[in-house]
Specification:
Helix 4 runs parallel beside helix 6 (about 105-110). The protein has about 120 residues and is of the alpha/beta class. The chain has a two-stranded parallel ribbon with strand order 1-2. It is built from six helices and four strands, in the order H-E-H-H-E-H-E-H-H-E. The chain has one domain (about 1-120): Rossmann fold.
C-alpha cells in the first residue's frame, strides 16, 4: 500500500500519518492494568518508525502513532482527532469465519466514518 500512498502524497503535497493499532491482550489492557510494553508493542513502534524513515527519505512529511485497543475504534478516533481527509487501508481478503464472527476492520471503519477511504489489496507474501 505504501508505494501508492507515497506517490499520491508526493503528488498532492500531503502529510502522512502512519497508524498501527496493537490489539493483543497487553495492548487492550495496557492502560487499565498499567502494564509494561510487550515485545510486540515495541516491535510495532520500531516498525512504524522504520517505515516512516523510509518515506521521509523521499521528502515526505510523516508522523507516526501507535494506538492500542480495538482497531476500527482507534482508527476512527485518530482520523477524527488528527483531522485526516483520507483513510488508506490495506485489504488482506476475506477470512470467512473470522470476518463473520468478529467483522472486518475495513467494514466497520467504512460504515462509521464520513472520511473517504482508499483501499489497496495487500500483496501476497
Amino acid at each position: 500500500m505504501l508505494p501508492q500512498i507515497a506517490q499520491l502524497a508526493a503528488h498532492l503535497g500531503s502529510e502522512l500519518l502512519l497508524l498501527h493499532v496493537a490489539d493483543g491482550w497487553v495492548a487492550r489492557s495496557f492502560d487499565q492494568l498499567k502494564l509494561a510494553e510487550s515485545e510486540e508493542i515495541k516491535n510495532d513502534r520500531a516498525y512504524l518508525e522504520k517505515t516512516a524513515d523510509g518515506l521521509r527519505t523521499k521528502k515526505l512529511t510523516v508522523a507516526t502513532r501507535l494506538a492500542m485497543g480495538n482497531p476500527p475504534t482507534e482508527i476512527l478516533k485518530m482520523a477524527e482527532a488528527e483531522h485526516c481527509n483520507l483513510i488508506a487501508m490495506t485489504s488482506h481478503g476475506h477470512r470467512l469465519l473470522g470476518d463473520i464472527v468478529h467483522g472486518s476492520t475495513i467494514n466497520e471503519v467504512r460504515h462509521r466514518t464520513h472520511i473517504p477511504i482508499f483501499l489497496v489489496r495487500a500483496e501476497k507474501k
